[in-house]
Amino acid sequence: MYLTDYREKSLKDIITQLEPGLFKKVTGLSIKDFELLVSLDVFNSALMNDAVYKFKRYEDASLEYVGINKHAGEDVGLYDTTISAEEYKKI
Questions:
Q1: Residue 18 to residues 2, 7, 31, 83: CA-CA distances in angstroms?
Q2: Over the range 76-87, which residues count as b (16 or more CB within 10 Å of their CB) and which as e?
Q3: What is the pTM of this model?
Q4: Beta-carbon neighbour count of residue 60 at 10 Å?
Q5: Averaged over 23-47, what is the pLDDT?
Q6: Which runs of E-coded beta strand occur in 1-91?
Q7: Rounded distance, CA 63 to CA 3, Å?
């Protein structure tokens, strides 16, 4: 799902509202399937937020290394929440 450019949105919103077609194409799951998995607590929100945060930190470090900082100052979407650019830098 990181093929999307909606960095400031939560991954959950990207899947269910902004890029449902991409989600279906990448996973083979419908939004209804995803929502069922969420309702069954298949996804631990705290762990998913942490994983998305760590991925974005690694991605940012790689991009900044080559001189790209496309999303400077924007909010950062995690799995089911977003954090401000300031919070993102502090963590």
A1: 13, 12, 11, 19
A2: bbbbbebbeeee
A3: 0.81
A4: 19
A5: 95
A6: 76-77, 82-83
A7: 15
